[in-house]
């Protein structure tokens, strides 16, 4: 069966900035350091890198990573590197991801989100941090399971009809 295709409205740059700011403020909440809590910034960055790669690129990902590093008081640049690699991976597979259904997209974004969690994990180990256990990589898997929800929520403003017409075929 063919799924319906929507002609999306152009995305508003203010909406992109607002969604990234909301994702960043979700990391301020106290449960962001718990095991199994998804990295909302990584999911939103991945979404915008897949859907609007010319507006949200590796530079924005790097800056968001630096902000997360400052907020977490972690090694300066570890999240910046992780988000930049995530952005690069998203840009490389964005055409394949867009052709798939939301359920199938999860399998394409899961490795990217796990790598985004593994990079700070590996950097901390290299620089002598305590071994936190492999359960911190679970955050990437849970983030991938949230991909369909985030995709639907972030595409809603673009799916509205500007001029509804019942006689129009699309």
Short recap of the structure:
The chain has 170 residues and is mainly α. The chain has seven helices and no strands. The chain is elongated.
Task: Write up this protein.
- The chain is mainly alpha-helical.
- It contains 7 helices and no strands.
- Helix 4 packs antiparallel against helix 5.
- The chain starts with 12 loop residues before the first helix and ends in an 11-residue tail after the last helix.
- The model has no long low-confidence stretch (mean pLDDT 85).
Topology at a glance:
Elements: H1 13-26, H2 40-51, H3 58-72, H4 78-99, H5 102-126, H6 138-145, H7 147-159
Q: Which structural category do the helix and sheet elements fall into?
A: mainly alpha
Poorly predicted residue ranges: none
The helicity comes to: 55-70%
Given the structure, what is the number of helices? Answer: 7
Strand percent estimate: under 5%
Radius of gyration: 17 Å
Calculate the terminal CA-CA distance, rounded to whole Å: 18 Å
Largest sheet, in brief, is: none
**Residue-averaged pLDDT:** 85
Shape: elongated
Order of helices and strands: HHHHHHH
> How many E-type strands?
0
């Amino acid at each position: 069966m063919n799924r319906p295709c929507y002609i999306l409205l152009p995305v508003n740059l203010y909406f992109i900035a607002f969604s990234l700011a909301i994702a960043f403020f979700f990391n301020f909440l106290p449960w962001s350091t718990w095991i199994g809590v998804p990295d909302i910034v990584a999911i939103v960055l991945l979404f915008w890198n897949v859907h609007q790669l010319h507006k949200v690129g590796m530079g924005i990902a790097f800056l968001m990573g630096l902000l997360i590093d400052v907020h977490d008081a972690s090694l300066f640049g570890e999240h910046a590197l992780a988000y930049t690699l995530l952005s690069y991976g998203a840009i490389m597979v964005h055409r394949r991801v867009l052709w798939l259904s939301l359920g199938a997209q999860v399998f394409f974004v899961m490795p990217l989100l796990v790598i985004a969690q593994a990079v700070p994990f590996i950097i901390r180990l290299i620089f002598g941090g305590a071994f936190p256990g492999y359960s911190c990589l679970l955050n990437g898997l849970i983030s991938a399971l949230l991909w369909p929800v985030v995709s639907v929520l972030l595409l809603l403003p673009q799916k509205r009809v500007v001029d509804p017409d019942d006689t129009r075929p699309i």
